């Protein structure tokens, strides 16, 4: 009986993490209540504290999970390029700067979807560290696209490329429905894919 109960507890926690990762990206950290998160997981509100000490703890875990999903996508795209740095960059940029990605934050990049909300959280909140850790991993992945033997140059170029990607997607989402949104995605995509190094 205890084993079945433990397995169900693990399944419930997984469902909560999955739902919250999606819902926080869609609606923001403060745009969804614990009751809504639990309903999104198919569970009742009362069971929340059996899994997480607080909404802050869940936000950090959901952020971590969202970055893990983003990183897994990026690593698959990098691997498909077979070491060709230009192809690696294209494999990251082309699906990222699209109207489809813009319209679907719940299944998209954690860096863009959570940036504004995390920036508004106090410095001591655990979600801030989860965000920074996840972003560092994505920056490291982006550094693989830079053709340089100098580690500092690769890192610096990766920072610039990440800022362009996340900034363009964030602005495109903020102007979605206006021609400026598509212009932003197209211009930054052309700039990044035309860049060398």
From TrEMBL:
**Keywords from the UniProt entry:** DNA-binding, Repressor, Transcription, Transcription regulation
InterPro entries membership: DNA-bd_HTH_TetR-type_CS, Homeodomain-like_sf, HTH_TetR, Tet_transcr_reg_TetR-rel_C_sf
Keyword Magnesium belongs to the record: no
According to the UniProt entry, its GO molecular function terms are: DNA binding
Region listing for Disordered, in residue ranges: 1-20
Residue ranges under compositional bias (Basic and acidic residues)?
1-16
Q: Which residues bind DNA?
A: 33-52
Ranges for domain HTH tetR-type: 10-70
Under PANTHER family, the record lists: TRANSCRIPTIONAL REGULATORY PROTEIN (PTHR47506)
Name recorded for this polypeptide: TetR/AcrR family transcriptional repressor of nem operon
Please give the organism.
Cupriavidus alkaliphilus
């Amino acid at each position: 009986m205890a084993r079945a109960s433990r397995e169900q507890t693990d399944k419930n926690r997984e469902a909560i993490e999955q739902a919250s990762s999606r819902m926080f990206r869609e609606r923001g950290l403060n745009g969804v209540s614990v009751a809504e998160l639990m309903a999104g997981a198919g569970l009742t509100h009362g069971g929340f504290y059996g899994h997480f000490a607080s909404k802050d703890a869940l936000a950090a875990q959901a952020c971590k999970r969202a970055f893990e999903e983003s990183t897994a996508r990026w690593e698959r795209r990098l691997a498909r390029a077979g070491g060709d740095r230009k192809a690696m960059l294209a494999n990251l940029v082309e699906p990222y700067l699209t109207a489809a990605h813009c319209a679907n934050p719940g299944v998209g990049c954690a860096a863009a979807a959570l940036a504004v909300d995390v920036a508004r959280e106090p410095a001591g909140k655990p979600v801030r560290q989860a965000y920074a850790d996840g972003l560092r991993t994505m920056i490291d992945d982006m550094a693989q696209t830079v053709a340089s033997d100098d580690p500092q140059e690769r890192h610096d170029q990766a920072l610039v490329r990440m800022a362009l990607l996340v900034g363009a997607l964030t602005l495109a989402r903020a102007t979605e429905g206006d021609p400026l949104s598509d212009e932003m995605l197209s211009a930054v995509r052309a700039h990044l894919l035309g860049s060398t190094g």
